[in-house]
Write a structure and sequence with these properties.
Structural class: alpha/beta
Helix content: 40-55%
Strand order of the largest sheet: 4-2-6-7-1-8
Order of helices and strands: HEHEEHEEHHEHHEHEHHHHHEHEEH
Shape: globular
Number of domains: 2
Radius of gyration: 22 Å
Number of helices: 15
Oligomer: single chain
Number of strands: 11
Length: 326
């Protein structure tokens, strides 16, 4: 369910109306509505745009041919596929190519898939179209055993599309702040990347959304106190209207149990959580130690590089932290 992201949509639409220059990380805490925002953004793009939306969630990707995720095999000639793109303006799942071309790109050592893609995008621009490339759930790539040169090559291709050739806007969507930090450093993206935060809803918008779904003021406040503006819980709450408080308490209890299991016997994790409990956020200076990495991977804490802080993933995590530290 999509609800009131007009500020974010306004920024995105204005951003793509300018010449491509930087790749853009769309980041935020887990389940903050990043994918829903990008799908709505695609719907609102004018007809001169051609959008390639690639969601990596659930995709089986092998390290040796990870470049395949950029492509989608389609029937027909390359000319026919480009013609279809010009008519529809949208491709889900990858950049459409005939199977024989993809096979050649992947198997022939003399072929360069990145050069092919650059020429592909250039042909669209020559037809007065404006390409937009969106990779969602980017952290899936981070789970692969890719060496530095492969990561460097992939992300520098994105940089070339946006900053050097100005052929396409490139949006990279993820909730994995560790992966962003890794990519930013390994691919040397300083001065080549933009950050855009998609956060949980602010209080008034969250309460409005809950009232829109049929909750009264008292019920809406209860949900806010437990979950803050986390969209996934705001959508689920009305399903538990008959036992709302019990549902809230149950969700917190489960989070406390998982957090207790995570930190049991680990003094370094406890010490870091104490800082988060006292201040709700702590400064981030770019250094990521073992404790911080473990709490981020467990979706307890979240790095916000744009604002230079580390904070709980959401209100529920903050309450769980306070509970386990009593």
């Amino acid at each position: 369910m999509f609800f009131d992201r007009e500020r974010e949509l306004k920024w995105l639409l204005k951003f793509v109306s300018t010449e491509p220059n930087l790749i853009t990380f769309i980041y935020g805490p887990i389940n903050s509505g990043k994918s829903s925002l990008m799908v709505e953004f695609i719907k609102r793009l004018p007809e001169e745009y051609v959008t390639f939306y690639i969601n990596l969630r659930g995709r089986f990707i092998r390290s040796e041919d990870f470049i395949k995720v950029l492509f989608s095999v389609k029937d027909g000639s390359l000319k026919d596929l480009l013609g279809e793109l010009l008519r529809t303006g949208l491709s889900y799942g990858g950049i459409p190519v005939p199977e024989r071309i993809l096979k050649k790109l992947l198997e022939d050592e003399n072929e360069d898939p990145f050069l092919f893609l650059e020429n592909y995008f250039r042909s669209l621009v020559e037809k007065e179209k404006k390409p937009v490339l969106i990779l969602d759930e980017l952290q899936v790539i981070g789970d692969l055993k890719l060496d530095g040169p492969l990561i460097y090559r992939l992300f520098n291709f994105f940089v070339r599309l946006a900053k050097e050739t100005h052929l396409s806007h490139v949006f990279l969507v993820t909730s994995d702040s560790l992966f962003i930090e890794r990519i930013y450093n390994e691919a040397m993206l300083q001065g080549r990347a933009e950050y855009f935060l998609v956060d949980d809803f602010e209080r008034e918008i969250a309460l409005e959304f809950l009232r829109y779904q049929g909750l009264n003021d008292e019920e809406a406040e209860l949900i806010w106190n437990y979950f803050g503006g986390k969209p996934v819980y705001l959508v689920e709450a009305p399903k538990h209207k008959d036992e709302l408080r019990k549902w809230c308490e149950r969700m917190l209890r489960l989070r406390v149990q998982s957090l207790n299991a995570l930190i049991h016997g680990k003094r370094n994790l406890v010490n870091l959580l104490k800082k988060s409990e006292d201040n709700e956020s702590i400064p981030f200076d770019g250094r990521i130690d073992r404790a911080l990495k473990e709490l981020i991977r467990a979706n307890v804490l979240f790095i916000d590089p744009l604002n230079g802080i580390v904070r709980p993933q959401g209100r529920l995590e903050l309450l769980a932290i306070r509970e386990v530290l009593k």
